[in-house]
Write a sequence for this structure.
């Protein structure tokens, strides 16, 4: 990983326009469209039928698979349809359509869970439906289902290194105590001795608030991260806080670490206290054409168009709507798709702003090499991909690429490098299968 | 004179020693060459396309030339009957006809008949475009039209025009490289004698297909009723022809309301329209 003490990265324009704004809860929309696969792992099967009356927090989809998380209704109302359709993840999936009665009544099952043992704790985390809310969508219940005492560090990811997004920041300011309670519960049941809360240096108020509440507690430390993208990537934050290296094929657990997003921790903590599972998500709505950019608490399954309307609509025809941050998020072709668990932002940009400049030839300047946090050689990988040379791709460690987009961001030739690497990774995977 | 003799004699002696070494090496270190294999290899076209199922022409020739080989002599599609007959005569077997194959694209969605769903700005290859919401077109089953097949074809027999891959049946040898490359898996390799095929592979329901594409199969089953040989059936919301049973009569094509069943004219037929 080079001689530097820190990993490479790029200085992106933070554009945190909504920083300091409170989180505004959004009323239940007319209909919610809840896809049955909002996490990594086995998709859930619907456990409700068309015509059933459901209440907020009631389980509507579940799976027996080890890597999976239950899905709960985000509104109260009746199940209108169970259909197959395209979701915002770009896959065809089962979608449960629920017509809301506008009351958002809570289900009887929403009671604080009783936890007396490690098994009960893991079962409760799984029942909360919380997945990696930073964008990865890995089920928390599966992540915590380890042998207690095998992990040395719990790392809470509050870096929020992507431009525009401010929901984690807002949540850290508003629910600092809840987050700390969640961390303490996790450390207690998983027997983790130490915890780092990684927060990027551009959020001094959040760091100060954590430091104030954690006075006297030596086991939980706030680690101020440098203001450089991508500090919030799992491998990067592990290296920056603990100095440990997670190589390809390893999971953080092999390095004695568990990483959890700060909002995941908060939602888990809320479930432990109130019994309300993950039914709504904090979302930043921003972009140059949004009338009122703000942070919203959105019921899961709300169509993107409804969320944009709640924020005052758009000033002009959008050129690009991105779900997630501008660096790693995906552009979506339609605003009919619904918000799901792993979304954290809806960014709408005008045509002029989002227009892509034309790709030119590589001039071998090497800026991509200097930018790559995993110390890869993007320019050479790109050439090997053009030649369809699987052996060379393997040699250049393309599988280490985590798709952060730093190389494409700095490229003066505007080459879509990380998009190429996604194809290259698929190519290598397919070749190794044969 | 003396000045010449020494170098000349030295050179001759060195040459003789070298020749002796080479002769010995040829005698003791020679690799046995199967002459039949060389002869067969000469008859093969050398395209290394893999249509025979072997890793290239050399591999196929070696497999044929092996003692007691049961490999068929008619597997070379680009070489056609001529190569098959030549190979059969070398091996002393009866000549077998080559079943000529041809690629066939199961889509007829031109740019005018379908609509784009998004303004795709990524890498201009079908495989990359498919990774973004199944492709930029509104139909998620049809030809994406960035020409991965065109770039893969070693014969230049397939090209994309107006957003749809078209096969030139005159040039196509049926090697199947395009079928393996296509990320949508809509290219079939069928025997050249079959002239009727369904040019749609949409698994959407009829009403949806009708909305998305003016040239899509809506699964109305009129072709099923028209067929006298039980050769065409609607599966996955589009018609599929059983090539074993199809007799090229074209009744299904006449019955099709969306005109997605195409009939190729018989080869060597005089054109209907006189020119000039």
């Amino acid at each position: 990983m080079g001689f530097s003490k820190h990993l490479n990265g790029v200085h992106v324009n933070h554009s945190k326009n909504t920083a300091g704004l409170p989180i505004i809860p959004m009323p239940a929309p007319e209909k919610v469209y809840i896809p049955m696969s909002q996490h990594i792992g086995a998709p859930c099967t619907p456990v409700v039928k068309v015509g059933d009356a459901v209440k907020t927090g009631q389980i509507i989809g579940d799976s027996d698979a080890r890597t999976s998380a239950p899905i709960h209704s985000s509104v109260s109302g009746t199940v209108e349809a169970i259909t197959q359709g395209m979701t915002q993840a770009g896959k065809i999936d089962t979608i449960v359509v629920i017509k809301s009665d506008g009351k958002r009544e809570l289900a009887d099952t929403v009671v604080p869970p009783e936890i007396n043992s490690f098994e009960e704790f893991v079962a409760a985390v799984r029942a909360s439906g919380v997945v990696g809310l930073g964008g990865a969508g890995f089920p928390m219940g599966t992540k915590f289902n380890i042998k207690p005492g095998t992990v040395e560090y719990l790392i809470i990811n509050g870096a929020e290194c992507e431009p525009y997004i401010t929901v984690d920041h807002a949540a850290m300011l508003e629910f600092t105590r809840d987050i700390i309670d969640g961390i303490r519960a996790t450390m207690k049941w998983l027997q983790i001795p130490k915890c780092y809360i990684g927060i990027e240096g551009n959020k001094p108020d959040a760091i100060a608030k954590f430091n104030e509440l954690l006075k006297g507690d030596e086991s939980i430390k706030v680690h101020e991260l440098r203001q450089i993208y991508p500090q919030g990537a799992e491998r990067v934050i592990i290296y920056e806080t603990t100095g440990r290296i997670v190589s390809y094929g390893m999971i953080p657990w092999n390095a004695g670490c568990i990483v959890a997003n700060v909002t995941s921790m908060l939602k888990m903590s809320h479930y432990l206290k109130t019994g309300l599972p993950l039914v709504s998500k904090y979302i930043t709505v921003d972009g140059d054409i949004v009338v009122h950019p703000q942070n919203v608490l959105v019921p899961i399954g709300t169509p993107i168009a409804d969320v944009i309307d709640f924020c005052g609509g758009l000033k002009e025809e959008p050129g690009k709507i991105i779900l997630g941050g501008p660096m790693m998020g995906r552009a979506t072709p339609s605003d009919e798709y619904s918000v799901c668990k792993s979304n954290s932002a809806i960014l709408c940009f005008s045509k002029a702003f989002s227009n892509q400049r034309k790709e030119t030839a590589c001039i071998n300047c090497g800026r991509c090499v200097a930018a790559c946090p995993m110390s890869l050689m993007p320019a050479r990988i790109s050439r090997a991909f053009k030649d369809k040379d699987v052996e060379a791709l393997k040699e250049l460690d393309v599988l280490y690429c985590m798709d952060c987009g730093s190389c494409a961001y700095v490229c003066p030739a505007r080459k879509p490098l990380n998009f190429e690497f996604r194809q290259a990774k698929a190519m290598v995977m397919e070749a190794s299968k044969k | 004179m003396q000045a010449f003799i020494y170098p000349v004699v030295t050179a001759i002696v060195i040459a003789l020693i070298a020749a002796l070494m080479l002769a010995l090496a040829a005698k003791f270190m020679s690799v046995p060459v199967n002459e039949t294999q060389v002869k067969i290899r000469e008859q093969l076209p050398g395209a290394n396309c893999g249509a025979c199922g072997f890793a290239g022409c050399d591999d196929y020739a070696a497999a044929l030339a092996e003692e007691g080989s049961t490999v068929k002599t008619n597997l070379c599609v680009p070489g056609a009957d001529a190569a098959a007959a030549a190979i059969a005569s070398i091996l002393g077997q009866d000549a077998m006809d080559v079943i000529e194959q041809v690629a066939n694209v199961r889509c007829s969605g031109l740019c005018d008949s379908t609509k784009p769903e998004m303004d795709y700005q990524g890498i201009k290859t079908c495989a990359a475009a498919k990774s973004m919401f199944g492709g930029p077109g509104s139909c998620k089953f049809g030809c994406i039209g960035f020409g991965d097949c065109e770039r893969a074809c070693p014969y230049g027999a397939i090209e994309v025009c107006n957003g749809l891959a078209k096969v030139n049946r005159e040039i196509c040898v049926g090697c199947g490289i395009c079928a393996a490359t296509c990320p949508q898996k809509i290219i079939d390799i069928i025997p050249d004698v079959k002239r009727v095929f369904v040019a749609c592979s949409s698994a959407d329901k009829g009403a949806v297909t009708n909305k998305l594409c003016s040239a899509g199969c809506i699964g109305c089953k009129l072709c099923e009723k028209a067929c006298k040989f039980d050769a065409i059936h609607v599966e996955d919301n589009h018609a599929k022809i059983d090539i074993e049973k199809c007799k090229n009569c074209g009744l299904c094509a006449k019955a099709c309301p969306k005109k997605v069943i195409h009939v190729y004219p018989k080869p060597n037929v005089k054109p209907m329209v006189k020119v000039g």
Q: What stands out?
A: Chain A has a mean pLDDT of 89.
